[in-house]
Each structure stands twice: as structure tokens, then as C-alpha cells.
């Protein structure tokens, strides 16, 4: 009996897998990802799976097509602004693809599905949705375990100790490295970091918001800045200095911009976001 491939199931299956892979790349690199971009990238990845229905391609052509897919998904989902950030995401995402594929193939080989079609680097399985979700979750668990062991040092390196000096006041906070941030203050071309409002209050003695534009204590201007919640117009003031201290090595940045946000950044893990310009 001839088996039928359902296009909607094919796209849905690969949309879920792409979602997991993009989320994995985000966690392994520490790159902040917007929910809208994550969903969009996942859907595009699902549409890419239609290559399964195309005529078979040779190995090098499959690799080239897979690479082009990874490049497009990284640009759509993460929109990296720096070459270094792009290649880091590309390497992690491509490696996760092949690792995930190996786990999936091994799992389905052991489960012996009634029908499995593989072509051009994509696969279709004749199994229940629950089975697919269970195997996908197991694969993600393996990658998550890898993250906790092999990539543990990289994760730790993504969190930095920062000291912010403003006048006679100074605070020490934890900051997450956002490799996709390239924001600079147009007034002095200095890099801009994001700090939560409570920490900014401790530093300046003023609850900074849009109304602070008229304050005599802190000079404020509004700049478009990327945060966990997306691009926002945030109040920014100039600090005297930011010092990043890690393992006895420090880097100072004079007169950086401090963008103040009311959004929750990282619970107790970090209270600020810094770009690669600070390290």
C-alpha cells in the first residue's frame, strides 16, 4: 500500500523541531530572542521542510541548502548586528541541527515507526503527534544536559560583574552579555547598557522614567534600545564610568549611556544588559 505524506503534518512537525533548535541556540549562546521572531523563524523552518518533496539532491547540495537555511533562520530570528555574533549563532545552530537529527533518527529507529521518509536532510514520520512530542522533548533534554555540562563555562561567562559609578555613588550588579546589542549614545558615541529601574534609583537617587526629562538632578534623553521585551524608547543618562570585573581582569568604559527599563530583566541572576563593547 502506498504511503501518503501529509503536508500539514510535515510542516507542523518541522516547525516544532525548528522552535526547539532556535530556543536551544538562544540558551547556549546567551543571545536574547524575541517571542515574535522565534515564532516567525520556527514557521519559516517548517516551510523549509517542503524540500522533502523535492527531487533528491547530492550530499554537497544538501549541505549547502542546509547551510542557507541556517543563515536565513539566524537572520530572521536573531538579527545579529555583529559578524562575531552571527558566526557564533551559526556554529551553535548548525551543530544543534546535526546533533538533534542524530538523536531523532536514533530514537525513531528504536521505536520502528510504520513509515519514515527521509530526503534532502528532512524526515517525515508516520507516528502519533504525542510520540513526536515525546521524542522531541527527549532530544531537547539531551541538548539541555549538554548545555549544563559542556557549555557550563560559556553560560557562566555570559554573566559579568559590573560596577557603575555616577558622581559619588556606585553600585555593583550582575549583567548579561547581549551579543546582539550595538546601541551607542548619539551624543558621545559611547556604548549603552540597560539597567533596571530599581538599581538606577539606588545609583542616582531618582526614580527615572519619561517624566525625568524635566528633572534638574539627572539629565535624561530618550533613545531606542533593545531589551528582553523588544525595542523600546527608554530614558538614558550618562554615568561617569562602568567597570566590568571578571576573574581579576577589568575593563573600564568612561561616560557610557545607562538606559533605564521597568521590565524584569533576569530575576535574581542579573539586573543589567551589556554589549560586547563593555568587555
Describe the model.
α2 runs antiparallel to α3 and α4 (83-111) packs across α5 (129-149). A hairpin with a 2-residue loop joins β6 (221-227) and β7. With 279 residues, this protein is of the alpha+beta class. The chain starts with 6 loop residues before the first helix and ends in a 5-residue tail after the last strand. The chain contains seven helices and eleven strands. Strands 6-7-10-5-11-4-3-8-9 form a nine-stranded mixed β-sheet. It has a two-stranded antiparallel sheet with strand order 1-2. The protein is elongated, with a radius of gyration of 23 Å.
Largest sheet: 9 strands, mixed
The average pLDDT is 77
Number of helices: 7
Unreliably modeled segments: none
- The secondary structure category is alpha+beta
C-alpha end-to-end distance: 62 Å
Radius of gyration from the alpha-carbon trace, in angstroms: 23 Å
- Strand order, main sheet: write it out: 6-7-10-5-11-4-3-8-9
Quaternary state of the chains: single chain
Number of distinct beta strands: 11
Order of helices and strands: HHHHEEHHEEEHEEEEEE
Helix content: 40-55%
Identify the overall geometry.
Answer: elongated
Short description:
The chain is of the alpha+beta class and 279 residues long. It contains seven helices and eleven strands.
Amino acid at each position: 500500500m502506498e504511503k501518503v505524506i501529509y503536508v500539514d503534518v510535515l510542516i507542523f512537525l518541522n516547525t516544532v523541531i525548528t522552535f526547539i533548535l532556535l530556543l536551544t541556540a538562544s540558551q547556549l549562546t546567551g543571545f536574547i530572542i524575541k517571542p515574535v521572531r522565534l515564532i516567525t523563524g520556527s514557521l519559516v523552518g517548517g516551510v523549509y521542510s517542503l524540500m522533502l518533496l523535492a527531487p533528491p539532491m547530492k550530499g554537497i547540495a544538501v549541505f549547502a541548502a542546509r547551510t542557507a537555511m541556517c543563515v536565513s533562520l539566524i537572520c530572521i530570528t536573531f538579527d545579529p548586528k555583529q559578524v562575531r555574533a552571527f558566526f557564533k549563532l551559526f556554529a551553535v545552530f548548525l551543530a544543534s541541527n546535526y546533533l538533534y537529527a542524530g538523536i531523532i533518527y536514533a530514537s525513531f529507529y528504536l521505536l520502528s515507526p510504520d513509515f519514515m521518509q527521509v530526503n534532502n536532510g528532512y524526515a517525515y514520520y508516520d507516528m502519533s503527534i504525542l510520540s513526536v512530542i515525546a521524542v522531541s522533548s527527549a532530544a531537547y533534554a539531551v541538548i539541555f544536559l549538554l548545555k549544563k555540562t559542556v557549555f557550563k563555562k560559556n553560560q557562566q561567562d555570559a554573566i559579568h560583574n559590573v560596577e557603575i559609578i555616577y558622581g559619588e555613588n556606585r553600585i555593583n550588579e550582575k549583567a548579561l552579555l547581549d551579543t546582539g546589542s550595538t546601541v551607542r549614545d548619539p551624543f558621545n558615541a559611547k556604548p549603552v547598557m540597560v539597567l533596571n529601574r530599581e538599581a538606577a534609583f539606588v545609583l542616582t537617587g531618582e526614580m527615572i522614567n519619561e517624566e525625568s526629562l524635566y528633572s534638574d538632578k539627572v539629565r535624561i534623553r530618550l533613545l531606542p534600545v533593545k531589551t528582553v521585551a523588544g525595542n523600546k524608547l527608554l530614558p538614558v543618562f550618562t554615568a561617569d564610568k562602568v567597570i566590568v570585573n571578571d576573574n581579576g581582569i577589568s575593563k573600564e568604559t568612561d561616560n557610557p549611556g545607562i538606559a533605564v527599563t521597568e521590565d524584569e530583566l533576569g530575576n535574581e541572576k542579573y539586573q543589567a544588559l551589556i554589549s560586547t563593547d563593555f568587555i
